[in-house]
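I am still getting used to backbone structure tokens and would like to learn alongside you. Label the sequence line and the structure token line clearly, so we can match residues to local backbone shapes. Go ahead whenever you are ready, and we will take it from there:
>
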Amino acid sequence: MFTVAALYHFTRFADPAALIAPLRAVAEGGGVRGSLLIAGEGINGTIAGPRTGIDAVLAAIRALPGCSDLEWKESTAAQLPFDRLKVRLKREIVTMGQPDVDPRARVGHYVEAKDWNDLIRQPDVVVIDTRNDYEVEIGTFEGAVDPQTTSFGEFPAWWEANRDRFHNKRVAMFCTGGIRCEKSTNYLLGQGVEDVFHLKGGILKYLEEVPEEQSLWNGECYVFDKRVSVTHALGQGRYGMCHACGRPVGADAKAHPDYEEGVSCPRCIGEYSETDRDRFRMRQRQRG
């Protein structure tokens, strides 16, 4: 059994590029795979490997400037959910494209998983899902607003176009692990929204801690690794992945005429040319 650790931390790195090689060395030495993104604003990633390897990487991150109070979420996987290790330098650890947004300055009110149901049941609270459309499609909270964005960078424009809908409402937002809400709540506070809340630890913490019989979550939660989706108690979900576009595919999508394993699914059939699909077929044959 392998340990999967999802983490992020906002802090100021004076020379983020200098952190790449040492972190990669620790991860490789411990047999860890996955992705770590490093920018001047902090670190974000999901990694998987043996317990000792994960512990070594977490210790190395906690030793970085401003990271001693790093928090992370853990789950397990029967097989390594990543093929390789990526440690990369980025402009942002989660891309919103708003240079004035700074979660280190202020964010919305954190809401523990055990208190989330009580908050979102309140009649003056609007609940907004900050994830991408294909993530929302396979699961979300009861009554949540879906902005139908294809990337997080579209969220500010969506808010500007829809903010009047939420006049005199308290705003509660959530995402997979919490990182997008760090930026989106800071953004809304900067837009003059007074009462902003977000689910601490994200959907993953909620599914881990809230019993299924008490849950207001419908469906499964998309995760960015080979598991594709998880259920309550972070069990393995039932979705597969379209290896052409990376989106989740369930039984209905697999039965659709536009689905071809490794080549296309109903969502991406119009996004690639036949030349692309021939290339995908060759790749699929090489996978065996």
In short: The chain has a mean pLDDT of 96. The radius of gyration is 19 Å.
